[in-house]
Write a structure and sequence with these properties.
single chain, 9-stranded antiparallel β-sheet, alpha+beta, 3 helices, globular
Length: 172
């Protein structure tokens, strides 16, 4: 299950989820615009329609989508750090929150996945602990609270896409 919490100063959100797949697979779902459009969103909430990226430090990225009432939205930013499959840091400005900039830091940590076998457990593969630090919400408490809820959902969608192939169209 994905978790998310606001920092005491309400400036940042720390969110986490475990995904039973290697970091390289998770990183691909985050950095490939075609995959991002498949997993990011849910009917009645929002949906990514188009995504572009110049995947390098200083490169620009953008996402265009639609909200629950069909209203279009746009997000964009620059890549600040890129270290596949371990780290991705990007600035972000979204037209639905106002014109303030936030920073999203993705950390992907490999974890062994164990399963039962006979009388004990054994390693069956590699999973990934995904940690997201989304900062820059000082003075924007409503947006911080909204994003806190949004990160729980988004990380769940990412997990379900990577582990089970669940796309936006399949999600209820």
């Amino acid at each position: 299950m994905a978790t998310a919490q606001l920092t005491p100063d309400n400036d940042a959100i720390l969110a986490e989820v475990f995904i039973a797949a290697p970091p390289a697979r998770v990183f691909a779902a985050l950095s490939d615009p075609k995959q991002l459009a498949q997993w990011w969103g849910q009917k009645g909430v929002f949906r990514a329609i188009d995504s572009t990226c110049d995947f390098r430090v200083g490169g620009k990225w953008s996402i265009d989508g639609v909200g629950p009432t069909g209203t279009p939205f746009h997000m964009e930013g620059r890549y600040l750090e890129v270290d596949p499959p371990r780290l991705l840091v990007q600035s972000r400005v979204a037209d639905f929150v106002g014109e303030f900039e936030t920073v999203v830091r993705w950390e992907l940590e490999p974890r062994d996945v164990h399963g039962l076998h006979g009388s004990g457990t054994h390693r069956v593969g590699t999973g990934t602990l995904v940690k997201v630090w989304h900062s820059g919400f000082a003075g924007h408490l409503d947006q911080a609270k909204s994003h806190n809820t949004g990160w729980k959902a988004s990380l769940g969608w990412l997990r379900d896409f990577v582990e089970k192939g669940e796309t936006f169209e399949m999600r209820k």
